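Sequence, please.
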């Protein structure tokens, strides 16, 4: 994955935010399209209630974090309980930790003081880098 590809996905997320998509939807769509190609309408809809810290209340996890974790699950999760999911779990934990390190909080209300579009762009870039680092695991 080239830097340009990662930057394009990050910009796609920011552009989606500028077009009234929520943070959770924007990162899920941008990363999901890159990792999976076309996303079904149902997949996109699943990311909607995670906007604004779940239900728009700004009290819980940032939607850019939860949307990214949804993208990890869609791309690297399992659909059979007999499949080892450790790599997916580790990737989700690594994304959470990198997000916290970069932004200083996981909670929407704490992060809402800044520009959500830029945060979502940066969170997408973090996730794209992690996906690249773990693509062969």
């Amino acid at each position: 994955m080239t830097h340009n590809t990662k930057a394009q996905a990050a910009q796609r997320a920011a552009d989606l935010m500028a077009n009234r998509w929520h943070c959770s939807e924007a990162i899920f769509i941008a990363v999901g399209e890159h990792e999976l190609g076309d996303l079904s309408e149902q997949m996109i809809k699943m990311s909607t209630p995670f906007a604004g810290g779940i239900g728009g209340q700004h009290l819980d996890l940032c939607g850019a974090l939860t949307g990214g974790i949804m993208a990890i699950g869609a791309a690297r999760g399992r659909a059979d309980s007999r499949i080892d999911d450790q790599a997916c779990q580790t990737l989700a934990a690594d994304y959470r930790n990198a997000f916290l390190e970069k932004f200083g909080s996981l909670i929407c209300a704490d992060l809402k003081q800044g520009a959500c579009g830029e945060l979502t762009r940066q969170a997408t870039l973090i996730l794209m880098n992690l996906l690249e680092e773990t693509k062969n695991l």
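The chain has one domain: 3-133.
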